[in-house]
Amino acid sequence: MIPRLPSSNSYHHRLKSLRRNMVVQSPVPVRTKKTKAVGIPTLDLSLDRSIVSKLVVEACEDYGFFKVTNHGVPMEIISRLEDEGFRFFNKPAPDKQQAVPAGSFGYGSKNIGLHGDKGELEYLLLPTNPCSIVQTSNTISQEPKNFSSAANEYIKAVRELASEILDLVAEGLWLQDKYAFSKLITDVESDSILRFNHYPPLSSTPCKDDVEVGFGEHSDPQILTIFRSNDVGGLQIALRDGFWIPVPPDPTQFFVIVGDALRVLTNERFRSARHRAMANSTENSRMSIMYFGAPPLNTTISPLPQLVSSENPSLYKPFTWGDYKKAAYSLRLGDPRLHLFQASFISTNQIHIM
Ligand SMILES: C=C1C[C@]23C[C@@]1(O)CC[C@H]2[C@@]12CCC[C@@](C)(C(=O)O1)[C@H]2[C@@H]3C(=O)O
Ligand SMILES: O=C(O)CCC(=O)C(=O)O
Ligand SMILES: [Fe+2]
């Protein structure tokens, strides 16, 4: 099917001026080695759908990262969860260590994952399923109902936002199934995660040229990450040329990061942005809240047929989200992992000496 595009001049004029305005200047660039003061693509979700869907696709292709405004999530929902997060991190260490003790979820401090990655932060990692939020809230808050209702309302709102963005992506790619991506994260079995990262002010002064790491460089393995932070900066995004751009915080808006799974589903048309958080050298605490939208564990991830052709053959073998998650979690934070699933990858046990 040949896509039909509106042909009016005013449409093209509007699109051009939107593109010009899409990249906004960072007001307070945090400079480290190899950083650039480039703007962040910003998309106003209240604009005409046909325009926004095109711009979303462009931002996913060029950056794998963008900011959304007019996102429709009430500030009250955001502030309630932020207050609950700070209330938790302000508790004494032994109380925090009791939160969600089982498995890979729960409270962590300075250790990220299980393979020696360190960071200047503490965090709380939770499954987004409403029942497990209710259960775990007993170990997180003295007033568990306040925590669980704040978390569940926030999760519902950001899941809707993620799903809306994924529908725009499907439209911008002219897919026949408009819900091809969103249905993966709205499934009741979805493996999505909620994470609070708390970066207390650094007590020691970092050595010259040695910027301490808050959260090391990595890409997110899931489909899409929706996140925001309070007004303390720290996040940086890698550009294609290897330069890092600081992301000025915007507490009332959301940022979106393309994950590895979406990169595979689009047969590498999209980038999964590598990002990192610098340690917090300000006087105030930084807190980010990340929603990682993921499919059910048994979902097959492989490039969508519409994005595969003889000129663009599939770059990946099919694998399940569970397979990819297992591979990612068996590696260090910054390790490459997608190559393990590439169509051209030959694992050592496939090499037979004749
Ligand atoms: C070192 C690690 C932390 C991580 C699991 C991993 O082994 C590699 C991927 C990491 C990451 C990055 C994005 C968020 C996160 C929750 C995820 O799904 O993959 C973290 C994992 C974690 O913090 O446990
Ligand atoms: O806290 C941040 O700003 C970044 C954290 C992050 O990238 C993550 O939790 O995956
Ligand atoms: Fe991340």
TrEMBL record:
The Fe2OG dioxygenase domain covers: 189-295
Q: Which UniProt keywords apply?
A: Dioxygenase, Iron, Metal-binding, Oxidoreductase
Output the InterPro entries linked to this UniProt entry: DIOX_N, IPNS-like_FE2OG_OXY, IPNS-like_sf, Iron_ascorbate_oxido_reductase, Oxoglu/Fe-dep_dioxygenase_dom
Q: Which PROSITE patterns match?
A: FE2OG_OXY
Q: Phosphoprotein: present as a keyword of the record?
A: no
- In which pathway is this protein known to take part? Plant hormone biosynthesis; gibberellin biosynthesis; Hormone biosynthesis
A UniProt-annotated Pfam family: DIOX_N
> What highest taxon heads this organism's lineage?
Eukaryota
The answer to keyword DNA damage applying to this record is no
Protein family according to the UniProt entry? Belongs to the iron/ascorbate-dependent oxidoreductase family. GA2OX subfamily.
Identification of the protein by name: gibberellin 2beta-dioxygenase
Q: Which organism is it from?
A: Gossypium tomentosum
